[in-house]
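Anyone up for a design puzzle?
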């Protein structure tokens, strides 16, 4: 075997190893992206589940949908409602106002007294880019509230698209 054959063989072997490493790296990147997106979807679904549990206890007459602070009762970025905390035997007893809204990149839950003062405040999730509510009538004595949340995680590298996950759920209220 000549020196030239050894050099050519080594170059071919190095090229094959380089190609194999590139394929391995792209597979690893795809797997990592899948894990991030899966975690985001799980977080978005969990956020909606937490909101829906409370919204299912709301009375249709107590739900308000706001867009930029203005009551629209159709679509918006904030929902306020009162949930039943008991009954006097005939009618529900309504608790304080609960508000779900987007504050920066956090979906927050606020509890407000009758004067609009904040009693408690907490973040349900972070990394949110959208919180959307849509209220519609589904029949006599029933309304539906569709809730959508989008979460975002930027990728390292600057020019690459961020990872996003969107989840949506619907809650039906009856009078």
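Challenge accepted. My sequence:
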């Amino acid at each position: 075997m000549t020196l030239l054959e050894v050099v050519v063989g080594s170059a071919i072997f190095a090229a094959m190893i380089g190609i194999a490493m590139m394929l391995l790296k792209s597979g690893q990147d795809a797997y990592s992206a899948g894990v991030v997106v899966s975690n985001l979807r799980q977080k978005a679904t969990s956020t909606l589940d937490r909101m829906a549990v409370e919204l299912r206890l709301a009375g249709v007459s107590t739900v308000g949908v706001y867009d930029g602070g203005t009551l629209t009762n159709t679509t918006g970025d904030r929902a306020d409602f009162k949930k039943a905390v008991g009954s006097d035997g005939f009618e529900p007893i309504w608790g304080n106002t609960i508000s779900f809204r987007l504050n920066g990149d956090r979906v927050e839950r606020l509890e407000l007294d009758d004067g609009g003062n904040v009693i408690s405040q907490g973040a349900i999730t972070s990394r949110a880019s959208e919180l959307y509510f849509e209220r519609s009538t589904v029949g006599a004595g029933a309304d539906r509230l569709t809730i959508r949340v989008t979460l975002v995680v930027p990728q390292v590298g600057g020019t690459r698209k961020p990872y996003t996950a969107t989840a949506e759920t619907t809650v039906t209220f009856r009078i």
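A detail worth pointing out: The chain has a mean pLDDT of 85.
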